[in-house]
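During the second year of the project, the team shifted from modelling isolated chains to modelling whole assemblies. The rationale, set out in the original proposal, was that interfaces cannot be judged from single-chain predictions alone. As a representative example for this report, we include one of the complexes processed in the last quarter. Its constituent sequences, exactly as entered into the pipeline, are reproduced here:
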Amino acid sequence: MSSRTFQVQKGHFYAVGVGPGNADLLTLRAVNVIKNSQVIICPKSAASRSSLALKIIRDFVSDQEIIEHVYPMQRSEKDVRESWLRASDIIAGHCLQNKTVTQVTLGDPHVYSTCAYILPIIEETLGADKIHIIPGITALQAAAANFIQPLTTQEDRLTLMAGSDMANVEKALGTCETLVLYKAGKKLGELFDLLKKYNLEQNARVVFNAEMHGKEKIYIGLEKALEDQSGYLACVIVHIGRRKWG
Amino acid sequence: MSSRTFQVQKGHFYAVGVGPGNADLLTLRAVNVIKNSQVIICPKSAASRSSLALKIIRDFVSDQEIIEHVYPMQRSEKDVRESWLRASDIIAGHCLQNKTVTQVTLGDPHVYSTCAYILPIIEETLGADKIHIIPGITALQAAAANFIQPLTTQEDRLTLMAGSDMANVEKALGTCETLVLYKAGKKLGELFDLLKKYNLEQNARVVFNAEMHGKEKIYIGLEKALEDQSGYLACVIVHIGRRKWG
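Output from the structure prediction step:
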């Protein structure tokens, strides 16, 4: 059961999750795919100097062709789609030349990932059979691993969402036992006020830059995290309660 | 950033997620910890002949001491706690002899895992500093990887819960864009009726035994999956909608 070998195939496309930051959180399958690819697409936001995903995989890169694809960091559907349409053309072109093409993405390819825009476009050209998703450890899991407290037990419900709209966050507090917020870095003040209202401030855990060496910061309770300006890559876990077996 | 070495330490306890089934979904860190442990605790349900987690890691086992811990598969708080109290005593005892002890668990140690009962007990004996959680790929991620459709994009909310109580599942349909149900194998009929009511039957994907070689079964739409008796390890993903950037 354990030792089925994953075949990396010519002309196929692999969306590979590389985890949150430290290279040793890659799976063996991800390493296998990366090493056996001819072309690796590394997303890079317009604001950053280099691709974080590329940094994570650098120990597994030798003679693969590396393409850093710059994408806009705006919440603009149109700009984002145009950027990824260009990337999809490049990917499909290489696959049609019978090359193995990988796009590396932070975390998991199916969880708030840049892949989402590429996959349906490539599917039209290559067909679903030539597309493979390699799951990766999410920032949520890496953040939770800093604490003894499990995310879910027994009948708990876990909700993962963006921490951008406090009205929606407030609704979610009533419908799950564990709430996880991504992208909450800019709203920690509002979140603090909201959690105080429900007496949940001490139940929050904040991890900035999970698994990024030298940059990871961990807080129990939200108050101290408020003073931290670590910004974008913030994951907040709020333990609201437990739902036991009935 | 990528190459911080994870130190496996004597006298420490590691809760290691081994993913859903295939050995190549272990992370490099998990392999490192397993290889460098003196004692490995492998949970095994009373009903099964051998530990599934042990099967997954067998390529990384040489001279480590293997302890198969049999636990009850009932939803009984008392029986479960008693069983894990015994396991915790064994673990703490070995750690106090300065051995490196690992418990392997399917999926991720913090997501509906058997670890949940052990961690607080061991924390009392060893202290939190000697306990480490190594995240693993969840069945949810492995199931989702079979499809092109992402779990979450933009402002989507994802809720993960047990598929045991249809009244709660119905509520959740209204509060997230993607709903994932674990342990829904016995309730697929009721779930089918519920999803039909909301015209969501075709939006469901069912994966039985994700990443278990020769046992994995994949269904788009719930109707066909109803006839399958693959049972316990069922993961259902329901795509309810998308929530775009505002």
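The beta strands of chain A are 13-17, 39-45, 65-71, 101-105, 131-134, 158-162, 178-182, 204-208, 217-220, 234-239. Residues 140-239 of chain A form a domain with the Methyltransferase, Cobalt-precorrin-4 Transmethylase; Domain 2 fold (CATH 3.30.950.10).
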